[in-house]
Amino acid sequence: MSMQPLLVGTVPNTLREAFGEALAELMRSRPEVVVVDGDVAGGTGTHHVRAAHPNRFFQIGIAEQNMMCVAAGLSACGLIPVVATFSVFILRAYEMARLAIACDNRNVKIVGSHPGLDAGPDGASAQCLEDLAAFLTLPNFTVVAPGDPLEVRLATRAILDYVGPVYMRTGRSPAPTIFDSSHQFTLGKGMILRDGSDITLIGCGIQTARCLEAAKLLESDGLSVRVVHMPTVKPLDVELILNCAEATQMIVTSEDHNALTGLGSQIARLLSSHRPTPVFCNGVQDTFGESGEPEELAEKYGISPTGIAADAQAFLKRMRR
């Protein structure tokens, strides 16, 4: 299927706006797709759907638990509901997502904006650092964290085509462009963005762009760095990860999420049982964030390019002793 309709015009520089625009465009030819909103359409990008398809936009209000049950019911009627709200509010309805959606394998797409430190000035109460962990543990769920606005658009199409429950992260703040119009997105597949032989950096979501910048810093110190983008956190691209472990012998993962659980822990678990390989998990180190600009918070909490590079350098020194 041609991707051209989603590439017309200027791609927004925030993941949430790219998602909302793509969804509204796709719904023109997908009459079975509806949106379930929790009174935050202006913050999730689904205001584009509200304007273009008002009869398929269901305003549930600030009632996230009810949102999940309504979505499950709509799915049972043959529709494809997209539940969109802030990631931290989705956790409020986790039990309903588990029972009404995951247990019955409902074809519902849950899209969370404002994840991680990217929520910035909204502060610790809004910075969801646990959402990937929550949905990784739910059977039947696919978990997606696209890397830039263009990939969000392609991923939105992919999750609507996929039959089954999906959790996808977007983002609040402007995100750098990684890909051009030739980019292809496939659920369950990662990609090598630059090759190297000393160490592999694996990122998801907005951290992939930071991994690319960290690789430049490490290269200036004489290191050869492979950078891998892993937009599907579940299921992982097992073959690619095993190949990277074989090629570089050491891996550093990076995510805007609690470092204890998420992409890094998934990869470490995989390698421990398939090909034991040293893995360091760069992320927020089991703490809450605070109010501030996203780039300032990334620097303070060690997930900026300089933080990733510092962790990789320290990890290499420990492993080479």
What can you tell me about this protein's structure?
There is one protein chain. The protein is 40% helix and 18% strand. A seven-stranded mixed beta sheet has the order 2-1-3-4-6-5-10, with helices on both faces. Strands 7-9-8-11-12 form a five-stranded mixed beta sheet, with helices on both faces. It contains 13 helices and twelve strands. Helix 1 crosses helix 8, helix 4 runs parallel beside helix 6 (94-102) and helix 9 packs across helix 13. The protein is of the alpha/beta class and 321 residues long. It folds into two domains: 4-169, Rossmann fold, CATH 3.40.50; 191-319, Rossmann fold, CATH 3.40.50.
Keywords:
321 residues; alpha/beta; Rossmann fold; 2 domains; 7-stranded mixed sheet; 5-stranded mixed sheet; 13 helices
Summarize the structure.
This protein is an alpha/beta fold and 321 residues long.
Order of helices and strands: HEHHEHEHHEHEHEEEHEEHEHEHH
Low-confidence stretches: 1-9
Provide the CATH topology of the largest domain.
Rossmann fold
Number of helices: 13
For the termini, the CA-CA separation is 51 Å
Helix content: 25-40%
What does the average pLDDT come to? 95
Q: What is the name of the CATH superfamily of the largest domain?
A: Thiamin diphosphate (ThDP)-binding fold, Pyr/PP domains
Please describe the topology of this protein.
Blueprint: H1 15-26, E1 33-37, H2 41-44, H3 47-52, E2 57-59, H4 64-76, E3 80-86, H5 87-92, H6 94-102, E4 109-113, H7 131-136, E5 142-144, H8 149-161, E6 166-169, E7 191-194, E8 199-203, H9 207-219, E9 225-229, E10 232-234, H10 238-248, E11 251-258, H11 263-274, E12 279-284, H12 294-300, H13 305-319
